[in-house]
Amino acid sequence: MLTSIAYASILAIGCAAITLWYASTRVFNFAHASMVSWGFYITFILYKLFDSSPYLFMPIAALITGLFGIAIYVSVIRRLIQVKASEITLMMVTLGADFVLFAFLNVVIDYLANVYRWDIRSVNIVLKDVTIATIYGVTIKGVYLVAPFSALAFLVSIYMFLNMTSTGIAMRASIENPELSSILGINTDKIYALAWFIGGLLAGFSGGLLTMITQGTSSIGSDLIVLYFAGSIVGGLQNILGGLLGGLLVGLSERLIPYYLSAVFPWIYSYRFAVPLIMLVATLLLYPRGLAGLVERRWR
């Protein structure tokens, strides 16, 4: 259960990134996959260099991937938004950006593996996590606390940022009505760049946390990209907090539903990745507004 909660929390942080990008600039960002992989590997490389707790290096990894987000926005997305490119065009461009980031990551991995003989092609530092306590025979690892509290901290921080700061309110206005926001003097270009930075930061932090819960290669982001998208869509795609909740729900469902069903159907756990896909399709068919839409309707 603790592992499932930590895993779902990590997914939730990444889902918030996808939702932020889509809500602000209408871009389904496939480069999210490589940003997660970069966050994963930057955390590992810094851990390897300085031989200290990987948790210390996750914020650094997040900042670097945040800069990747700004670079993608400034280099391609901004121009395409200015010429009113279609959502499909924007999406395909991010696929190209993903290939570039993925290739560059593999160049770095090959260099470290061939020149410095690092065993880096497959990373596994799960056992390097700290043990907080042992309660009734259950070992409490650091990620069991750090991941949920990080997701909660991001939830509170994003809520406060969007509702209590002038920049956050400007971002909400730019998301809801960019043309009117421009007329009112809001620099939507800077707001969008900030959104891409925050999104990259969330993606990289999610990747960094993955080092504490699973083994991975340079394709770890691609392996999980469908789950990230599923969480964002279940959350509603228009609300960042909904994206966090959607990721949490998808992550828990993917782990716990097959686990309990396996008591009756032992073969079913192998198909656990079907759960997020079923949730994604069901959301699109039955209630595309997702969890955020349900919450809004409940409080009206």
TrEMBL record:
Keywords: Amino-acid transport, Cell membrane, Membrane, Transmembrane, Transmembrane helix, Transport. It is found in: Cell membrane. Pfam families: BPD_transp_2 (PF02653). The chain crosses the membrane at residues 6-23, 30-50, 56-76, 88-109, 143-162, 191-213, 225-252, 264-287. One of its GO terms (biological process) is amino acid transport. It comes from the Archaea. One of its GO terms (cellular component) is plasma membrane. It is a multi-pass membrane protein. Belongs to the binding-protein-dependent transport system permease family. LivHM subfamily. This is Branched-chain amino acid ABC transporter permease.
